[in-house]
């Protein structure tokens, strides 16, 4: 497949490209375009990497139940490993993702998922009834080729031997190995440095894209309202929208045709684990899979129902916390005794403004306590923090910008020389390197990789038919 939507464009190298948005997607596009000889202006009103890209959990994984996303993410991991280099400047780890279940339904779901993920390219599936052949995760580094594929570990005793702090109720553990985390600011800085060191020298402009001027079907220039109040008109050969949660808003400057994107609030808790409940050097990314009830006493339950203000348009949906809760609560150690804790479903009902606020300030006051209550099911020791969370417990976050089929949005849209790069929801950090490369191939009319048609809009490769939700009990 070849990019060829604006074949009449006059020149390739030396092409002037304006990129809107200096998050991870914009940094990657700037890097990949500059490497190909384009002259890039990166327009960003905030600090570079200062919006959602600043607040992620910094994790990556290679398993997807989508034959387009597997090669896309493998390429991204390959690019991340190259940027990490011999000195591992982005602190890439390969601790893995561990999913735990205690119910029969959960066990079957993890088994089904492991088989499918392996079939879709996540590597060898190994089952362990004893630990002789199970490889423990290294504290750091990512180069050991054995850290690939998926391990299923059976039995509470085995799980306890590996992770003594995990509940004895856990009967099965799925450990996906080619996964871990990194320093996301380091990744962004490495891409920005590569962009500015390229021969064509990327320029950064502090301001926001405020208008797009067209000549016929093409974007001819981009009008920027600079942070110092002045306006600047940037004539260009191509315009790239990497606006994250603001992508739809920016794209309306180009076309009336809406992008298939929705924003979702997503927040994380940063716990100062002064009691050392979570071992920092051996714990992987951990997720509890089963549904559960939270342990409220009768009085608190009544109070939670009363507290619910959603009928008056509020965001406190506390009456739902007394019913069954989906699994999915997760954590990872973050160094210096800190632990990141998240539970996605708690903020999913919250509306997001057309011009989303940043930094995010609107999330549930009880979010840290709710994350603790959920995660206590997987790590009982976390219960010792109830009512005792230190004032240094922080909550921050940003937005998942999602497409309906959870695939990225990378390709031309709205004009022959206008392009979009984003929509990567939960995986926009790990996906950025490959997304930026794919975008640059579109702009520079290079041969496109197999996954290009799955990322364009409209999709040229239909979305996956099998939808497996690790958290679905039914
Ligand atoms: C709590 C949380 C945890 C996450 N965990 C992970 C994870 O573990 N792994 C993972 O891969 N992903 C994760 N993500 C997702 C990931 O962080 C995002 O997908 C990614 O950072 C999005 O990058 P971006 O560059 O598209 O958007 P952003 O970083 O938001 O960048 C968009 C930029 O566009 C700029 N902009 C807006 N309007 C304009 C304008 N008019 N002109 C110019 N610029 C403009 C904004 O200022 C902003 O800087 C997480 C997200 C959250 C919120």
From TrEMBL:
One of its GO terms (cellular component) is cytoplasm. SUPFAM superfamilies: FAD/NAD(P)-binding domain. Keywords: Oxidoreductase. The keyword Oxidoreductase applies. PROSITE patterns: PROKAR_LIPOPROTEIN. InterPro entries: FAD-dep_OxRdtase, FAD/NAD-bd_sf. Pfam families: DAO. GO terms for molecular function: oxidoreductase activity. Residues 17-441 form the FAD dependent oxidoreductase domain. Required for the assembly of the mitochondrial membrane respiratory chain NADH dehydrogenase (Complex I). Involved in mid-late stages of complex I assembly. This is FAD-dependent oxidoreductase domain-containing protein 1. It comes from Effrenium voratum.
